[in-house]
Amino acid sequence: MANLTLIEAINRALHQEMAADETVIALGEDVGRDGGVFRATEGLWQKFGPNRCIDTPLAESGIVGTSIGLAVYGMKPVAEIQFEGFSYPALDQIISHAGKIRNRSRGKYHVPMVLRMPYGGGIKALEHHGEAPEAFYAHIPGIKVVIPSTPYDAKGLLISAIRDPDPVIFFEPKKIYRSFREEVPDESYEIPLGKARIAKQGKDLTIITWGAMVHVALQTAEQLKEKYDIEIIDLRTLVPYDLQAILASVQKTGRCVVLHEAIKTSGFGAEISALLMENALLSLQAPVLRVTGYDIPYPLAKLENYYLPDAKRLMAAIEKVMKF
Amino acid sequence: MCLFIMEKIVASFSIKHLQILDENGNCDEKLMPELTQTDIKKMYEWMLFSRMMDDKMLKMQRSGKMGTFASIRGQEASNIGSAYAMQDNDWLFPSFRENGSLYVRGVNPVNLLQVWGGDERGHVFPDSKNVFPMSIPVGSHLLHAVGAAWAAKLKGDKIATVVYFGDGATSEGDCMEALNFAGVFQVPCVFICQNNQWAISVPRKQQTAAQTLAQKAIGAGIFGYQVDGNDIFAVFKATKEALDKARSGQGPTFIECLTYRMGDHTTADDSTKYRDPKELEYWKQKDPIDRLRKYMVAKKFWSDFDEKNLLEKITQKIEQITKEYESIPLPKAEEMFQYTFAEMDERQKKQMEEMKTKL
């Protein structure tokens, strides 16, 4: 056991998977000698050499497209895009090919790649360095979308993602890269994709959330603990989502707030809201409310805190749902 | 007087163009690659088969028996000369105008009829030698060929990948990214650019200000070469040398094949709207199949009798192929769900059941 931050847990997962399977390689801008701008790939280049941890030219579509080629030939590439806001040039490769090759070839070829990206806001970063684009990716057939919120989950989910035979987008909430430590087993372990986690048990209301917002939900629930007994579901995998966990919780509590930092319109909260209406209407005591970012470009540092959902906004939504 | 401040040339380049067999069937023996008469007759058969198969598919499309498809008419030498140079373990990454190359690599023509006819099962290519499915988004698949070549290099496999694309593709960002990666990592990839002078209705001159397409490789630090794309000997030779070079660890090559798209872009296009018929006449004189026949006849190993026999043989083969294609039962609707992931997830299972109840 070791007390690791989320970024350290990711680093451990990479070290262990690369040691266990020589077809696993890491590639991206600055991941090699520099160990990654967030140090996610620290030590890999030194330990495994420049043919296993590879510094690529500055070309996101190129990184993802060559990863697809590497994968169909039998490698397991773990590619890094330096910030989620720079992933868009690679969308064509992801949508048109990574997600479609298995289907196009009726299973003859498949793409066992992982695309890792620092994700989300709250670090007073430059433009394009703090967005939450998970809804774009969740809408792509053939692509899995994973967002851990703790060091323990990050290691187990990344290992599962690397071992998964299909493309996985692995969003790493950069706000919590180093914000806390927790016990993480030394050995390799898998957390299955497609399974949510109950971050906190409760009976009055369910918050469904993921990423850094899980901790906003936990803090808010703590502040409200004398008043309401709130259950928090950390989705962990957006695609494929854990419908059973979502329904089990909301059928129990009858009230739900979805919390995500991504913009509101067509955010993944809309999907969850629709699913709850389709599957649990008669259990609902109130409409499902969404607490989200606004339908605007992500703001720079001075206005950032007005944008990100916080305890105050979450509490207001909880009150509304409880008092419906 | 200062001796150290000056302007000097730090890089320059040249692009060579190779022709071995001209449009009259005359051949520069000094430049001939190693090909036996059997090889040459085989290549001729592939070209004739491809053209006749193409014509058959056009007829089928006009009578509603085939979906929209892209003819290779005029590009037979580019397709076949290059594919013929590949070894068994090499991988081929096609765009969508390489039916000829695919036949040479063992793809069953019935499978191609399936693909163009709208049945994904055709893309399994069970009999082929490492042929990747066709890629429609122009220029996007070069990266896959580069990645696969890179993987082969990392694994120590002595193979090369060959990727086909057109003049239009060289304007796409992904094309340049692929060349750049190939150069940086010196991967065993051979880039075959079938410059057929047209990207739907946009002529080559409007595609780029570069004098040749081969020189785009120079920008990525890769060797670029141009050949007469209707000269099967030149196409074969350039490709073979590039493949040998790649497999021996000396890196990638870009070959620009100058050819011409004799047909429309696809069956959904009408090129008479934007092309001068004189241009087609000009290129007809340069037909790849005619010139090889002239060569074989002049060298006295091809007769009218041989030609007649081959035409009959191919006609019969095409009849067999179309019959076989038309007798394939339709795919089952469930198949749509079964290949998105390795295993269907709960959503897909549920949706598949819903769909089945509506059938």
Describe, in short, the structure shown.
With 324 residues, chain A is of the alpha/beta class.
Instruction: Please provide the ordered H/E string of secondary-structure elements of chain A.
Output: EHEHEHEHHEHEHEEEEHEEHEHEHH
Taken in chain order, the helices and strands of chain B follow as EHHEHHHEHEEEHHEHEHHHHH
Gap between N and C termini of chain B: 90 Å
The count of β-strands of chain A is 14
Widest sheet, order of strands of chain A: 3-2-4-5-7-6-12
How much helicity do the residues of chain A have?
A: 25-40%
Instruction: Count helical runs of chain B.
Output: 14
**Largest beta-sheet characterization of chain B:** 6 strands, parallel
What's the overall geometry of chain B?
Answer: globular
Number of helices of chain A: 12
Strand content of chain B: 5-15%
Oligomer: heterodimer
Class by helix and strand content of chain B? alpha/beta
**Residue runs with pLDDT of under 50 for 5 or more positions of chain B:** none
Task: Give the helices and strands, then pairings.
The complex is a heterodimer of chains A (324) and B (359).
Chain A lengths: L1 E3 L1 H15 L3 E5 L15 H5 L4 E3 L4 H13 L3 E5 L10 H8 L2 H4 L9 E6 L14 H5 L5 E3 L4 H13 L4 E6 L8 E3 L12 E4 L4 E5 L3 H11 L6 E5 L2 E3 L3 H11 L2 E8 L4 H13 L8 E5 L7 H7 L3 H12 L2
Parallel strand pairs in A: 2-3, 2-4, 4-5, 5-7, 6-7, 10-11, 10-13, 13-14
Antiparallel strand pairs in A: 1-8, 6-12, 9-11
Chain B lengths: L16 E2 L18 H26 L13 H9 L6 E3 L5 H6 L4 H8 L25 H14 L5 E6 L6 H13 L3 E7 L2 E2 L2 E2 H4 L7 H4 L4 E6 L3 H16 L5 E6 L18 H8 L3 H11 L5 H23 L8 H4 L7 H13 L1
Parallel strand pairs in B: 1-7, 2-3, 3-4, 4-8, 7-8
Antiparallel strand pairs in B: 5-6
How would you describe this protein?
The complex is a heterodimer of chains A (324) and B (359). Chain A has 324 residues and is α/β, with parallel strands linked by helices. Helix content of chain A is 36%, strand content 20%. In chain A, α10 links the parallel β13 (256-263) and β14 (289-293). In chain A, α1 (6-20) runs parallel beside α7 and α9 packs across α10. The relative contact order of chain A is 0.12. The mean pLDDT of chain A is 98. In chain B, β7, α9 (232-247) and β8 form a beta-alpha-beta unit. Chain B has helices spanning 37-62, 76-84, 99-104, 109-116, 142-155, 173-185, 204-207, 215-218, 232-247, 277-284, 288-298, 304-326, 335-338, 346-358; strands spanning 17-18, 91-93, 161-166, 189-195, 198-199, 202-203, 223-228, 253-258. Chain B is of the alpha/beta class. The chains are: A alpha/beta (324), B alpha/beta (359). The A-B interface holds A 25, 51, 56-57, 59, 61-62, 64-75, 77, 89, 92-93, 96-97, 101-110, 141-142, 144, 165-166, 194, 240-241, 243 and B 91, 120-121, 123-125, 132-133, 135, 137, 140-152, 154-155, 173-174, 177-178, 180-181, 184, 335, 338-342, 345-347.
